[in-house]
């Protein structure tokens, strides 16, 4: 099933909208500040969506594909697409043939600009949280390994079998090095997968 709203398509729409907002901010009197905020948020959303697309392509994790098929993801992507469409419509409003008249016409009410910027922030934040969920799997592995290292240290202290302090610390260092090497190997494998994609 082909998704009617794709991330790549939305990135293209946002790129066009960024250019329109920039040009409009330059042309319309007192619009620079709000347009700057608007295209800054659009640039942020575009970057997040591009990163999400790369993450999807590079990920061997099945939960990313499941996430992209989820209703929440589709609703948020649809909401982002509707928001971008509304912004395009607003920037196309009230255009006259006179450049002087256009310089004083706002395409929408100032409060609506602020609301649209906040909507962009919300959508962007949701997608960032989605990307963080992908890296949370890696964080879980790190947490498990750090708990294993802590348990090893506690066992060594509780047992007290090793009388020599130097020998005890050497054993602990070896175990810690073992777990750190395992973590590095997993990280290298993840990097290799990303590079190959």
TrEMBL record:
Going by the entry's taxonomy, the superkingdom of the source organism is recorded as: Eukaryota
**Protein known as:** Fungal N-terminal domain-containing protein
What organism is the protein native to?
A: Fusarium musae
């Amino acid at each position: 099933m082909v998704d009617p709203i794709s991330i790549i398509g939305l990135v293209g729409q946002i790129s066009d909208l960024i250019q329109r907002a920039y040009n409009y901010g330059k042309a319309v009197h007192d619009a620079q500040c709000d347009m700057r905020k608007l295209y800054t948020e659009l640039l942020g959303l575009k970057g997040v969506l591009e990163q999400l697309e790369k993450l999807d392509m590079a990920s061997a994790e099945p939960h990313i594909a499941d996430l992209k098929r989820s209703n929440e993801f589709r609703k948020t992507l649809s909401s982002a697409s509707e928001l971008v469409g509304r912004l395009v419509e607003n920037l196309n409003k009230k255009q006259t043939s006179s450049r002087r008249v256009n310089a004083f016409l706002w395409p929408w009410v100032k409060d609506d600009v602020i609301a649209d910027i906040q909507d962009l922030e919300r959508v962007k934040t949701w997608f960032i949280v989605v990307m963080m969920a992908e890296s949370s799997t890696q964080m879980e592995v790190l947490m498990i390994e750090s708990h294993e290292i802590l348990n090893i240290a506690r066992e060594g202290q509780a047992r007290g079998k090793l009388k020599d302090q130097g020998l005890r610390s050497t054993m602990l260092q070896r175990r810690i090095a073992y777990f750190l090497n395992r973590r590095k190997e997993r990280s290298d494998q993840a990097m290799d997968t990303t590079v190959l994609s």
